[in-house]
Amino acid sequence: MEEFVKIGPLMSEVLVKEKRKRQGTKRREILRAALELFAEKGIRATTVKDIAGKAGVAEGALYRHWKGKEELAEELFCENMKHFKDCLEAEIEGFKGAKLRLKRALGAFYTFAEKEPMVYRFLIQASHHELSYLLPRTPKPMDFFMKIIVEGIQSGELKEVEPPLAVAFIIGAVTKLPDYRRMGIIKRELKDCIDPLIELLWEGLRARNGLGKTLFQRKGQKRWLVS
């Protein structure tokens, strides 16, 4: 007579935990595979089949966690962009002065780019193209630099300029260096570029004759005030 083994509550819990662990592992593998492909090929050129093949799972495994590759890409983008911003903020915590804070922020920016090249490349590419629509509602390094600029103008360290223009000036200069290094245009390490770059940026941003504070006394500029 065939015997049946009854699975009690304890065994059921073990099986559930093991299943969740396997699902969690697959989810991480899918995220990793998608990140590599998005960074290499871009989101549009990457298919669900590509992601599943690289992760070593069936295509259906992806749909158990996300509606499709677009939702997966959005999750990767939002979580990693916030992580990038948090890394920058941690580096300047407790430090005073716009120039010093900018210098430390640049150091953290390039450390992230060198330690997480795949994540960095994905974030830069996606923010300029497929996922730019997420930027207004996603914590990002731009917000971080905006805060430094606004506080610098309020303190009188930085010149009269609309903060978004100053941030565009900084981001444009900062993000090009990793590209130039990868292309071989710049030979030295990114960390060795920080001092000359900060001097160039500072020369363009610093206030002359204490004029920085007057920006916030002008009509229509109060929205940039930092409380």
Tell me the total number of β-strands. Answer: 0
Give the proportion of residues in helices. 55-70%
CATH topology term of the largest domain: Tetracycline Repressor, domain 2
Q: Using only CA atoms, what is the Rg?
A: 23 Å
Shape: elongated
How many DSSP helices? Answer: 9
Let me know the largest β-sheet: none
- State the fourth-level CATH superfamily of the largest domain: Tetracycline Repressor, domain 2
CATH architecture of the largest domain: Orthogonal Bundle
Strand content: under 5%
Query: Can you give the mean pLDDT?
Result: 83
CATH class wording of the largest domain: Mainly Alpha
Quickly count the domains: 2
| Secondary-structure element order, N to C | HHHHHHHHH
Class derived from helix and strand content: mainly alpha
Span between termini: 78 Å
Low-confidence parts: 1-5, 211-220
